[in-house]
Amino acid sequence: MFSIGDKVVYPMHGAGVIEAIEEREVLGERRRYYVMRLSIGDMRIMIPFANVEDRGIRQVVDEEDFKKIIAILQEKKSPMSGNWHRRYRVNLDKMKSGDIFAVAEVVRNLVRRDQEKGLSTGERKMLDNARQILISELVLVRDDGPEQVEDLLSKLLA
């Protein structure tokens, strides 16, 4: 399904590059794994071949989708529940989906809410996580550094 050098996204963790395919014995069973290095930080993740579809791992978006993400970030926020718990659940489901457009909506909506009313501690952590996931993928799309992508996001969301 994927090859060494492919740029992929692991939902809730971020984007990275497949740097190896290894076979390991775990609990007496031999399995093949993708070894993925995340684009931000120095973390490596081993993903069993058998779990790739279940986990929603996908290729990084292309330049055309990058433009759509920019447009989403520039839009006004979507209507959100006034109830913190409902809002948190909806945003968490969007992030778990692995859909980069949904993650961009979460970032945009939480930034706009923070500008208007502030965020709870849980929502602030969610914003930081969503932002890192978004940045990790955009870094690979643009072949830019995290600082440049972070600057771009800050300008778009100001």
From TrEMBL:
<feature type="domain" description="CarD-like/TRCF RNAP-interacting">
    <location>
        <begin position="1"/>
        <end position="111"/>
    </location>
</feature>
<dbReference type="InterPro" id="IPR052531">
    <property type="entry name" value="CarD-like_regulator"/>
</dbReference>
<dbReference type="Pfam" id="PF21095">
    <property type="entry name" value="CarD_C"/>
</dbReference>
<dbReference type="InterPro" id="IPR048792">
    <property type="entry name" value="CarD_C"/>
</dbReference>
<dbReference type="InterPro" id="IPR036101">
    <property type="entry name" value="CarD-like/TRCF_RID_sf"/>
</dbReference>
<dbReference type="Pfam" id="PF02559">
    <property type="entry name" value="CarD_TRCF_RID"/>
</dbReference>
<dbReference type="InterPro" id="IPR042215">
    <property type="entry name" value="CarD-like_C"/>
</dbReference>
<dbReference type="GO" id="GO:0009303">
    <property type="term" value="P:rRNA transcription"/>
</dbReference>
<protein>
    <submittedName>
        <fullName>CarD family transcriptional regulator</fullName>
    </submittedName>
</protein>
<dbReference type="InterPro" id="IPR003711">
    <property type="entry name" value="CarD-like/TRCF_RID"/>
</dbReference>
